[in-house]
Amino acid sequence: QGDRTPLIAGNWKMHLDHLQAIAFVQKLSWGLKDVRHDFGEVEVAVFPPFTDLRSVQTLLAADKLSLTLGAQDVSPHESGAFTGDVSAAMLGKLDVRYVLVGHSERRQGHQEGDDTVAAKTLAAHTAGMVPVICVGETAEDLETHGAAAIPLAQLAAAIAPLPADAEFVVAYEPVWAIGSGQAATPEQAEDVARALRESLRDLRGDDVATATRILYGGSVASQNVAGFLRQPNVDGALVGGASLKVDEFTRIVQFKK
Ligand code: PEP
């Protein structure tokens, strides 16, 4: 796996208000403080709703907690008359390091196409953050095109505007596996992750392909996480539902290879 530090990311979606978020992060940090892996470091990130970011940032800074902060979305625009949008610069000011872009719940529920995802990816990068680019096929895509075609096209479109040295993370999330309890098998995840890395090699060269972390997401739980993390091209997990239970998320972070 080269030098890629595994990343376990918790996408809270629209759950936990800022008071609940504070209690949650305190418990999570307590649970994680003694977690050690014999293969080295694991990075743990949480992606709370916008209204929680300031509270969580303050808590992480005051207690010197080692969690990394992520946001679930970003405006493609720099500033201006965009009611309801939150800019990348605003997120950067809150010590946000990662920004989810292209999550299927935004592609489907908010009709975000590849152009919007690319603009958001660029906005996050330009403001100094690392976009976490979500790609994945629906059940219908899987039948029609196989597993990898849609994720590869979505990734190519999202990174097109990025400069050659830009850092980004890829999250392979088959849409049929999200929130369904029906995770992909580790082999299915590895096949697409390998194809994504190969395509990064073609598009961006060896260094980017080797350095870029590719996560798997879709019904990850403590019972199945290790199977994914054992795959040579899977460098972490994007966890939705199971990231909202402190004990379960702690067990996920504690995965054994
Ligand atoms: C997600 O929302 O990114 C996700 C993977 O959800 P879940 O883990 O609940 O399938």
UniProtKB/TrEMBL annotation:
CDD domains: TIM (cd00311). Its EC number is 5.3.1.1. It is found in: Cytoplasm. One of its GO terms (molecular function) is triose-phosphate isomerase activity. Substrate binds at residues 11-13, 179, 219, 240-241. Gene3D superfamilies: Aldolase class I (3.20.20.70). Keywords: Cytoplasm, Gluconeogenesis, Glycolysis, Isomerase. Its main location: cytoplasm. Pfam families: TIM (PF00121). PROSITE patterns: TIM_1, TIM_2. It catalyses: D-glyceraldehyde 3-phosphate = dihydroxyacetone phosphate. The active site is at 103 (electrophile), 173 (proton acceptor). It comes from the Bacteria. SUPFAM superfamilies: Triosephosphate isomerase (TIM). Pathway: Carbohydrate biosynthesis; gluconeogenesis; Carbohydrate degradation; glycolysis; D-glyceraldehyde 3-phosphate from glycerone phosphate: step 1/1. PANTHER family: TRIOSEPHOSPHATE ISOMERASE. HAMAP family: TIM_B. Involved in the gluconeogenesis. Catalyzes stereospecifically the conversion of dihydroxyacetone phosphate (DHAP) to D-glyceraldehyde-3-phosphate (G3P). Belongs to the triosephosphate isomerase family. NCBIfam families: tim. This is Triosephosphate isomerase. It comes from Leucobacter rhizosphaerae. The gene is tpiA.
